[in-house]
Amino acid sequence: MITKVQKWRNSPGIQLDKATLSAAGLEVGDEVGVVVMHGAIVVTPVRRARAFHDLHDLVRRLPKGARRAEVSWGAPVGFEFW
Questions:
Q1: If you average pLDDT over every residue of the chain, what do you get?
Q2: CB-based contacts of 16: which residues, under 8 Å, 6+ apart?
Q3: Closest of 15, 14, 50, 45 to residue 30, by C-alpha
Q4: Which of 14, 42, 54, 82 is least crowded, fewest Cβ atoms below 10 Å from its Cβ?
Q5: Predicted pLDDT of residue 54
Q6: pLDDT at residue 49, as a whole number
Q7: In the chain, where the domains are located
């Protein structure tokens, strides 16, 4: 695919066709990483290892009788500081 660097509002940008996005496993709205390697601009999909969690939502989902006491994980086994 050949495209042009064009002005998009106050920034330069490029436009990618649907086939190129699909081949890279991307969709509109996906996050990408952009780096320059040996004079080439490399765009890669950002794959998050974990999804975003809201602490308040997670706490709300705890069962009513959930224990709220401190849990002992045992004595240190390495270089932990307790």
A1: 87
A2: 1, 3
A3: 45
A4: 82
A5: 85
A6: 67
A7: 6-60
Beta carbons of 15 and 22 less than 8 angstroms apart: no
CA atoms within 13 A on the CB side of 58: 5
pLDDT at 65: 81
pLDDT at 34: 94
Ramachandran angles phi, psi of 48, nearest 5° = -80, 135
Q: With pLDDT > 90 as the criterion, what percentage of the chain qualifies?
A: 43
Q: CA 82 to CA 74: how far, in whole Å?
A: 10
CATH number of the 6-60 domain: 2.10.260.10
From CA 24, how far away is CA 32, in angstroms rounded? 11
Give whole-number Cα distances, 29 to 44, 46, 66, 68, in Å: 14, 12, 39, 40
- Look at residues 29, 2, 30, 34 and name the one whose alpha carbon lies nearest to residue 16: 2
Instruction: State which H helix or E strand residue 11 sits in.
Output: strand 11-13
